[in-house]
Amino acid sequence: MERAAHRLTPHSGSESVDGYEPPSLAELQRCLWTRASSSHVDQVWPNLHLGDAWTARDKTLLKHLGITHILNAADGKFNVNTGAIYYRDMNIQYYGIEAFDATDFNMSPFFHPAARFIRAGLNTAGGRVFVHCAMGISRAATLILAFLMICEKMTLIEAIKTVSTHRNISPNYGFLGQLQDLDRTLMKERRR
Predict the structure, then answer these.
(1) Looking at residue 186, which CATH number applies to its domain?
(2) Across-strand partners of 94?
(3) Could you tell me if residue 6 is inside a domain?
(4) Residues of the domain holding 159
(5) pTM: predicted TM-score of the whole model, two decimal places
(6) Which residue out of 99, 114, 133, 150 is catalytically annotated?
(7) Alpha-carbon span 65 to 74, nearest angstrom
């Protein structure tokens, strides 16, 4: 974990380029799964951790990591049902999204609220954010990619490469398509 932390450096983002178009889904898929394996939790950006349900339920590990904010992208009775009550003894800010890892699930309404939550957590003195879903490769990864695109002004491909350097991720095709749409929208906004 320490070695990974030394390699993490904030990215300045890319300048908008006229005619920019996000890569195709096939091209995006080729950028995924660049590491040999993933652990239960990996730091993918300074003070931002991506992981799974096992880590979400391990209060000792969360304390060891110094987690102050948790975004559960698989909240709810039929997912990873932790919730704010589960962490009531830990002084953790909690945000839950009841998302499903299905290609037809619309994750895009959560992109900006999740990015704001992550940004607020990282801006808190000593803030360390943990974003998770069941396995930490699709739903949670999608929200972290959106955060990097929205708040760090990365393109989708830059965000994927940044996260994939530290953890294997594989957002489903539906989520990748929604991230492509976000990429187009953000690039149009940056051109204005």
Answers:
(1) 3.90.190.10
(2) 70
(3) no
(4) 40-191
(5) 0.85
(6) 133
(7) 21
DSSP H or E stretch at residue 71: strand 69-72
Residue 22: inside a domain: no
pLDDT tens, position by position, 92-121: 999 999 999 999 999 999 999 999 999 999
Determine whether 133 is an active site residue. Answer: yes
Residue with tokens 């803030």, as numbered in its chain: 127
| Type of residue numbered 91 | N
pLDDT band at 18 (very low <50, low <70, confident <90, very high): low
Total of domains in the chain: 1
DSSP 8-state code for residue 40:
S
Residues 6+ apart with CB under 8 A from 59: 87, 89, 90
Q: Which residues in 129-190 belong to E strands, given as ranges?
A: 129-132
Work out the end-to-end distance of the chain between its first and last CA atoms, rounded to an integer number of angstroms: 40
7 part of a folded domain: no
Query: What are the C-alpha distances in Å from 12 to residues 4, 85, 94, 149, 158?
Result: 19, 37, 28, 11, 11
Asked if residue 18 belongs to a domain, the reply is no
